[in-house]
Structures are given as C-alpha cells and as structure tokens.
Amino acid sequence: MTSTPAGRRIVSCPTCRSDSVFAPQNPFRPFCSARCKNNDFGAWAGEAFRVAANAPHADDEPDAPGGEPH
Ligand SMILES: [Zn+2]
Fold first, then answer.
1. CA of residue 44 to ligand 1 center, whole Å
2. Lower Cβ count inside 10 Å, N or C end of the chain?
3. φ, ψ for residue 9, nearest 5 deg
4. Which residue ranges form the domains of the chain, and what is each CATH number?
5. How far apart are CA 23 and CA 36, in angstroms?
C-alpha cells in the first residue's frame, strides 16, 4: 500500500461522488462537506417519508396498467 498515506484515506462522497478525505480533519466524513452531509440526510428523510406515505396505497396506483375489469 504505497498509494495510501498513513492516517489518511480518500473515499467517494456519497452525495456528489467526488473525493472526500476520511480523516479526523474532515468532520463531515464520509462526505466532502457540510452541504453534502445535509443534502444526503435530507434525501434520505424525504425518501423514508415518501415510502411511508405510499405504503397504504401500494396497490391502487393511478399509473398501473390495470387490465382487470372490475
Ligand atoms: Zn460531496
């Protein structure tokens, strides 16, 4: 392992996929910045909300092909 300096790792930011320093000097790790960290949390929370809201109506989607006559 010559490409990895001791105590310092580069990971992909989960939000923007750019290089992020995974070390104590980066308080937002594994994200590259506070903005990406907040962005990811917001997306996750929004997704969870949407799934929860959709659950009760799972089988009555307006977009369903619906070939069955009622
Ligand atoms: Zn980022």
1. 15
2. C
3. -130, 145
4. 9-52 (3.30.50.10)
5. 16
Look at residue 8 in the predicted model and tell me its pLDDT: 76
Q: List residues, by chain if needed, whose CB lies under 5 Å from ion ligand 1.
A: 13, 15-16, 32, 36
HSE, side-chain direction, 13 A CA sphere, residue 32:
11
Residues 6+ apart with CB under 8 A from 36: 13, 14, 15, 16, 20, 28
Question: What average pLDDT does range 11-18 have in this prediction?
Answer: 94
pTM of the model: 0.49
pLDDT > 90 fraction of the chain, expressed in percent and rounded: 40
How many Å apart are CA 34 and CA 11, to the nearest integer?
16
